[in-house]
Amino acid sequence: MSTRERRFRSDESDRVLRALFQTHSQDLKSSIAIAAVGGYGRGELSPGSDLDILILHEGSLSENQLREFVNALLFPIWDGAAAATQIPRSVDYSVRTKKETREAAKADLKVAMGLLDMRYICGDEDLVSDAAAEARKSWRKGARKRAGELQESLRIRHERTGDLAYLLEPDLKEARGGLRDITALRAIATSGLVEVSLDRISKAESLLQDIREALHTQSGRGKDKLLFQEQDKVAAHLNYIDADALMGDVAQSARDVDYLMALTWRAINKEKVRQISALDLPLQRLRQEGISNPWSRQRREDFLTLIGAGSAIVHIWEELDQEGDIAAWLPEWSSVRSLPQRNALHRHTVDRHMVETAVHSAALIRRVHRPDLLLVAALFHDIGKGGPDDHSQRGALLIEPLAQRMGFSAEEIETLQILIAHHLLLSSTATRRDLDDPATVASVLAVIPDLQTLELLHALSIADGEATGSAAWSDWKASLVNDLVRRTRAAMSGSILAKQPELDAQQRAFAEVGALRVDVLPRENGFAIEIISPDKPGLLSVVAGVLNLSRLDVRSARTKTHGASAVMQWIVQPDPHAPAPTAEKLHKDIDAALQGKIDLEKRIYERIKSRAVVPAIPVPPPEVEAFLDASSEATVFEVRSHDQPALLFYIGGAITRCRVDIGSAIVTTLGAEAIDTLYVREIGGGALSKERAEEVAQSLVTALR
């Protein structure tokens, strides 16, 4: 994959068109010519590219003559009969006079930009040279007006396609920072409005073209969207170590292009870099002052001012990064620069995610006693990613020398290490453990030494979750983390919390009746469903199965027992084409399933079989882990799996077949990943033995294969 191959493909196309033109133009008594435009005009033909050509004529030929000529010229290419197999079969052509070409360019920005790359192939060369000169002259003359039109078209396209640097499955051509933007930059350079340093992105352009060519070759299609299933093949084709390395280069190239685009529009619009006045002096000192080891107190204060600036930091940090300042200040940053996160939870590369976390932490500095430690922990909480080891523990090691250079004390560094090593502790514990179990708070107390560290970790958890996105952070998750922090704070201070009732008075009353009850309440993006039922082995599986057949996607669930009844609270999202759930219908179906009147397994199997698709994203196998000491009354199982239809139905069925009981369950779906925590006990009560726990774990693994 190289510029040479793309040029060869263009040259071969020229040769074929010349031969066909020579054969079929001899009877025409009028000047006519063929010109390459757009990517073909630049000699950038990938295997799936279109042949963009303009057929120019004087205007004396009839429509019938032109039609016959075009068909004779292009049919051998469409039919694949042309001698050279290297040339594309897809042709995007237009037939115009010079006047029609001029009018089309005025009416259509895309046409006008394509004409800037016009290149003579064959026929009347004067026709092409005149049209090309006129296109460039017109473009320069109307440059100011056309610039506004171009900027608006870019904005609309970027909103539609997203950022090439941060998308999991990016469009190499259309996304922000992609090849279409490079074409726009080239057009701006041609306009003469401002100087555009195209040499800054020559490497990025070549790389994106190589990747696009490899994608066309590997997929056998002229598509520019780099899908998950193609990324490993494209990476191997281009001799990358893996797809992450490939996507890292894609991200960095896109950032280079987007940064040059930002500089260009700033120059066109005569904008100065707009910074909050409070940042002007700190930034100036940071960029001009020599870097000592450790940093001077003033330098550290200036750096903290920068990273505490909220949303203003995002674009400033990108400029500092692009200009090489960040690498000079923080050599560790290079290991995560443009590092992709190929999962459905994260919206950004690792480095951009950490900057976004700093943005969100800046809004929380009034909640903590040490805002400086919060900001630094936020900016570097994922610095350990990119290595083979656990990124949290690796990050805790990396922060020590970094924080020493910044001038923090040994005690402060120890706090930073705890925050980074355990930045996932509160959110994972709150969503995967029973908060009423004393062992849950004890597990947090074993790690967090004091109230100050707890408040810092709480703020960091919020900032990290908000920066990750709604798939990983919600009001529900925030409330669970708040509850865990409240309980931990009380335990640290020796306070005796009034025991929070597991169920409210109404729930207890209905549970004591011992009858099936279903309530459905609409909520944002779905429904909250509360089910109270006489408890029995397999109840969780039955209810999950009914919800699946009702075309309801379980996003989270919590179950508790009260006496002889189970109280279940589900958050579900309906299939877009399914009717809204009703309490009456669910009550009827659950009751029938509990009585054995519905063969859930058969019906779920048939539904899954009819809808089965191969996931586009490569998914690892499910994992099951048993925690023998996580609860004083039960054995805790954590099931991690790619979310799939009826997942909870199969998990509950596996538990039932092992003749054990689920005391409570916490179900969490994060994007495309499901994490289900089950508190399992023997039928007569009590935690499982090690041997029984291994049996249940194996049953779960088998059920999910």
Describe this structure in words.
Strand 11 and strand 12 (about 675-680) form a beta hairpin. The protein is an alpha+beta fold. The strands form 2 sheets. Strands 5-6-8-7-11-12-10-9 form an 8-stranded antiparallel β-sheet. The chain folds into 4 domains: about 5-140, Beta Polymerase, domain 2; about 145-270, Four Helix Bundle (Hemerythrin (Met), subunit A) (Up-down Bundle); about 285-310 and about 350-495; about 515-705, no CATH class. It is about 55% helix and about 15% strand. Residues about 270-275 have low confidence and may be disordered. It is built from 29 helices and 12 strands. Keywords: Hydrolase, Magnesium, Multifunctional enzyme, Nucleotidyltransferase, Repeat, Transferase. GO terms for molecular function: [protein-PII] uridylyltransferase activity; hydrolase activity.
Topology summary:
Elements: H1 3-24, E1 32-36, H2 38-41, E2 51-57, H3 63-78, E3 91-96, H4 98-107, H5 109-115, E4 119-123, H6 125-141, H7 143-161, H8 179-191, H9 202-219, H10 228-237, H11 243-268, H12 277-288, H13 297-307, H14 313-322, H15 325-329, H16 350-362, H17 371-380, H18 391-406, H19 410-421, H20 425-432, H21 438-445, H22 451-468, H23 475-493, H24 505-513, E5 517-523, E6 526-534, H25 539-549, E7 552-562, E8 565-574, H26 583-594, H27 600-611, E9 623-627, E10 635-642, H28 647-657, E11 660-670, E12 673-682, H29 690-704
Parallel strand pairs: 2-3
Antiparallel strand pairs: 1-2, 1-4, 5-6, 6-8, 7-8, 7-11, 9-10, 10-12, 11-12
